[in-house]
Amino acid sequence: MISPIRSSGFQPALVFAVIFGGVFLLHVPLLQLPYFWDEAGYYVPAARDLLLTGSLIPHTTVSNAHPPLVMAWVALWWKCVGYAPLVTRSAMLVIAAFSLRGVFRLASRVANAQVAIASTLCTALYPVFFAQSSLAQVDLAAAGLTFWGLTAYLEKRPRATAIWFSLAVLAKETAILAPVALACWEVLRFVAPRQGWMRGLWIDSSAERDTGAGKRILPLLVPLAPLALWYFYHWSHTGYVFGNPEFFRYNVAATLNPVRFLLALVLRLWQAFGYMHLWLLTLGMLLAMLRPPVKDGGIERSRIAIPVQMIFLVVVKVYVVAMALIGGAELARYMLPAVPLVIIVGVSTLRRRLRDWSMAVAVVAVAFVVAWFWNPPYGFSPEDNLAYRDYIVLHQDAERFLEARYPMAHVLTAWPASDELARPWLGYTTRPMQVVQIENFSLEQVVSAAEFRSHFEVALVFSTKYEPPHPVLERWKTWEGLKRRFFDFHRDLPPAAAAQILGGRVVYSQERKGQWVAVIEMEQSEIENAKLSCGPRGAPRFYSPFLGPSR
User: Fold this and answer.
1) 341 and 432: one domain?
2) pLDDT mean over 508-536
3) Is the N end or the C end of the chain the one with fewer CB atoms within 10 Å?
């Protein structure tokens, strides 16, 4: 069998410089934005604690047991350059460029330079990757290091394989999925028939070379060691292994339901092959496979070797299944280690079977850029495209208004606005404000808060979930019931309804592409600022930095 490993011929430093320059220029309008959602709730506080105290385990937010590599990277930049969103986002763009360099190297090794350039471009423009590139979160870094680990694995460099995958698991614990899945794939070589078509599913699959499989398996298991050491360190300092009990319940214990698994599996398949206009590439690939390979000078254009495609399939499959089984929030960023592999195979197939394949890739790239600005007709996370910028701008404006007009007020709100108001170093306010926190702005929570309105003078309400104007499944009540049961779905009350229940009036409101924010002033002549020490279940609480969730 011909080896799938080829050389691109490009200078690595030059490729990285070009990628970083392009990524940086595309993100210039976003670099000054304050921190968003899980950035504000966990990753930035954790990095800040590391910077100020040297502690690998955060103390201004509840530890979720995420390994500290990315937080240490951000803290190092702050130490060298200074604490500012511009510095944070620039540091993350370096990681994004390095990850794209890994995609380029991987694609050039399994295909050729043309496929590598097109795949890297499509990955960079894919809305989820693009949006995550400047956000201080860990999934993109784990994905990028996984690509480097896959490349080393295919190049039969066991030491590099172990190092890259070990770094990946120190970026995020779920990165262990790829090396363990590949180790299991190598083990299957021993039980596969010695003769027949199945032997062609593995690289170097001849029987006489099976004795070397152990050397391929061991480097894939090495990353278990640093991950185990981190968990032991975390347990010795906190008393729990896999994050605080609420985090573990939300992301693992509460997800182990067969019905939820099947629903999440469908969603993960969509995120791997169709989400944010990715379906165009998948459909194009399937249609292209109906055509014969293009011949140049009588020679068929090459394809990615079947054993390599099987390796990609193993990684994609394990992420689809595992991320359907765990993870309370079905976030698309969890699939970042899998989607670029789909892109590489899709682009390679288009090149192999379409003479004008570059035009097809250009259509996909344009569709990805359109998806930066276009919100789909179903609920999605704003962090998956530039909707996160709309959220930040809405909250910046509302919280500046709130700080200017009610600087000494107690503010009723929900996470993450509670962090934004109480922590000026997140970039939303200039001084901390006093916050009373509820879980969300559902009818039940707002009614509960109305019973304790003597504890706040104003309320900052906002859309905690994106709801499209005309959702594709709006008439299927069963779907909403399933979302409420398995995916923590709720409907936020609109500002006018919340104001009526709370006994106030809307003094500020703003809306952007399906997201909104409003300030409600309580219409009471005199309000006691009594401190709420305890109350019945569901009652609002005075703000604590440990209340906000994180994924």
Assistant:
1) no
2) 71
3) N
